[in-house]
C-alpha cells in the first residue's frame, strides 16, 4: 500500500501511526504542497493523507485510514476507551498551538516544500487562516508560556508511556501528532510524563520527532 502525505501534517501522522503500531508495511509518498492535480485526480479534491489500497482504490480521511488498517486483520489495537478530559485539553490547546507551529513549519526543511512555489503556497494558505507569521513568531515567548501552563494538566492524564489511557485508543492517535509537531518548537519544557510518552510513542509508531528542525 501507498500513503500519500505531507511530513508536517498532523493528520498524516495519524494515518502513519497505525502502520507503525500494527507493524504493517507501507510506502510513504510525499506530495509537494502546491500539487493540486495528484490528490484531485485520486479523490476529487486536494487533501492528505490518502491511502492507496492493495486493490488500487483510494481512501482519504485520516481516521478512516486508521480504522481500515487497524481492523484489516481482525486484530485491532485501538481497543481502549477514550477520555473526554483529554479531548477537552486538545481542543483548548488547539486555540493557539497553530500560531506556534505553522510559522515554524513554513521555515523547515520538509520534503513537501522542496520548491519555492510549494513553500509559498503553504505560507499563503496558512497566513490567510491565522494571520501574519512574523507576528506569531514575535509572540513565541507568550505562546510557549501559555503551553507550559497547560502541560501539567496533560501530564496528570498520562497513565503510561505505552498508551495515554493505559491501553491504546484513538486518544493516542489524536495526542501524539500534536506532541510530535511541538518538537519543532525550541524552548518548550515538557513534564517528564509527557516527554516519556512522546518519545515512546514515536518509537512505537516509527515516526521520528522534529528535533533536528527545532527553531
From TrEMBL:
Pfam families reported in the protein's UniProt record: Glutaredoxin2_C (PF04399), GST_N_3 (PF13417)
Transmembrane residue ranges: none
InterPro entries named among the record's database cross-references: GLR_AS, Glutaredoxin2_C, Glutathione-S-Trfase_C_sf, Glutathione_S-Trfase, Glutathione_S-Trfase_N, Grx2, Thioredoxin-like_sf
Residues of the signal peptide: none
GO cellular component: cytosol
Domain GST N-terminal: 1-77
Record-given protein name: Glutaredoxin-2
Annotated gene: grxB
Amino acid at each position: 500500500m501507498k500513503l500519500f502525505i505531507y511530513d508536517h501534517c498532523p493528520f498524516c501522522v495519524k494515518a502513519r501511526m497505525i502502520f507503525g503500531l500494527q507493524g504493517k508495511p507501507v510506502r510513504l509518498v510525499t506530495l509537494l504542497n502546491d500539487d493540486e492535480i495528484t490528490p484531485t485526480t485520486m479523490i476529487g479534491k486536494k487533501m492528505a493523507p490518502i491511502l492507496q489500497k492493495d486493490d488500487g482504490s483510494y481512501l482519504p480521511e485520516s481516521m478512516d485510514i486508521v480504522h481500515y488498517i487497524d481492523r484489516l486483520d481482525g486484530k485491532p489495537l485501538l481497543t481502549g476507551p477514550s477520555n473526554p478530559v483529554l479531548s477537552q485539553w486538545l481542543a483548548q490547546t488547539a486555540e493557539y498551538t497553530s500560531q506556534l507551529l505553522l510559522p515554524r513549519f513554513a521555515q523547515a526543511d520538509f520534503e513537501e516544500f522542496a520548491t519555492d512555489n510549494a513553500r509559498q503556497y503553504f505560507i499563503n494558505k496558512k497566513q490567510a487562516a491565522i494571520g501574519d507569521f512574523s507576528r506569531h513568531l514575535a509572540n513565541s515567548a507568550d505562546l510557549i508560556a501559555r503551553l507550559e501552563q497547560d502541560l501539567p494538566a496533560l501530564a496528570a492524564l498520562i497513565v503510561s508511556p505505552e498508551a495515554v489511557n493505559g491501553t491504546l485508543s484513538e486518544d493516542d492517535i489524536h495526542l501524539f501528532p500534536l506532541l510530535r509537531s511541538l518538537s519543532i518548537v525550541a524552548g518548550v519544557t515538557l513534564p517528564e510524563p509527557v516527554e516519556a510518552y512522546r518519545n515512546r510513542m514515536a518509537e512505537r509508531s516509527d515516526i521520528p520527532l522534529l528535533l533536528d528542525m527545532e527553531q
